[in-house]
Amino acid sequence: MLDIKIEKTTNPKPIPGPEDPLVFGTIFTDHMYVMEYCPEKGWHDPAIMPYQPISLAPSAMVFHYGQEMFEGLKAYKTEDGRILLFRPDKNAERANNSNRRLMIPEIDPEDFINAVKTIVEVDQAWIPTKPGTSLYVRPFVIATDPFLGVRPSNTYKFIIILSPVGAYYPEGLNPVKIWIEDKYVRAVRGGIGEAKTGGNYVASLAAQIKAHDEGYSQVLWLDGVERKYIEEVGAMNIFFKINGTVVTPVLNGSILPGVTRDTCIALCKEWGLPVEERRVSVEELEAAAKDGSLEEVWGTGTAAVISPVGHLRYEDDVFQIGDGGIGQISQKLYDTVTGIQLGKVEDKYGWTVEV
Ligand code: COI
């Protein structure tokens, strides 16, 4: 494992207090982690330094062809003062799956996890403790060769920044309204849908703005081939409870394999609920919503945690789910997942890692 050089800031910023609003992704801590890659040395010289702008050539390849990968995980402080990360091994693994698809050199998972632990330890005073808050950890890699031709870059930077956050959606745990998109698609078979990379998110913006203008929080994507099967929401995976069975779209290469998705599947199975990972068509959903068998809908994501869905809209049809409030399973998942993350609920699976 590589040694990380640490240079602490001499000019610390004020840390938000419990009364300050933590609007998601707007506040950054005092430090950042940076590691460089070049073909001669591989990944080398990891360092933690004061949070600061980075200097790149305008020709840096990330600006032109979007060769970049990012991750997201969270750190929590328990009531007895321990610092916990939730399943960082899954992020390290997914980072390398994305790296391989994007022709970015893989990062040793031990270095990835050690980097996250070390930067979180350095900025631990920034971990908020109010219910519903956490320290969001954003690792990312960018291609830095100054070059305008299309090929993989030879040089990269792996950076980690930290942001104290509250709920991702302003609605908090109140159900969000979701727009099932019938014109644009997010990802296609054989594309980069299962990699965590900026290109998938920029592809979502036009539909997201359209949905926002209509009063919807997020877009639910249909498959890019037949535009018939449900894939995922802009910042979450999606789950349905249909006739007592928990159903989520099967990972098909164009859906992001969410860590919270995996966590929810394991918990639902543990609770004895039938769980099906399979294709779900929009027609099936419409029919289930009409005959009352669509009992609950929720999204899962690191940023969003568990986000109940109260309304779905597809073309001219609008469906209210249940009574429009949070469902029983969504509430139980939220309480259990956040309980494990905060060290309040027994961690039977060894998902939490102490810093
Ligand atoms: C996360 O849930 O961590 C994500 O990366 C989603 C992002 C769009 C906020």
Automatic annotation (TrEMBL):
GO MF terms held by the record: branched-chain-amino-acid transaminase activity
Requisite cofactors: pyridoxal 5'-phosphate
Catalytic activity annotation: L-isoleucine + 2-oxoglutarate = (S)-3-methyl-2-oxopentanoate + L-glutamate; L-valine + 2-oxoglutarate = 3-methyl-2-oxobutanoate + L-glutamate; L-leucine + 2-oxoglutarate = 4-methyl-2-oxopentanoate + L-glutamate
Pathway noted in the entry: Amino-acid biosynthesis; L-isoleucine biosynthesis; L-isoleucine from 2-oxobutanoate: step 4/4; Amino-acid biosynthesis; L-leucine biosynthesis; L-leucine from 3-methyl-2-oxobutanoate: step 4/4; Amino-acid biosynthesis; L-valine biosynthesis; L-valine from pyruvate: step 4/4
Signal sequence range: none
Highest taxon of the lineage: Bacteria
Gene Ontology process terms (BP): amino acid biosynthetic process; branched-chain amino acid biosynthetic process
Enzyme Commission number(s) from the entry: 2.6.1.42
Modified residues (N6-(pyridoxal phosphate)lysine): K196
Record bears the keyword Amino-acid biosynthesis: yes
Keywords: Amino-acid biosynthesis, Aminotransferase, Branched-chain amino acid biosynthesis, Pyridoxal phosphate, Transferase
Similarity section: Belongs to the class-IV pyridoxal-phosphate-dependent aminotransferase family.
Protein name: Branched-chain-amino-acid aminotransferase
Lineage: Bacteria, Bacillati, Bacillota, Clostridia, Lachnospirales
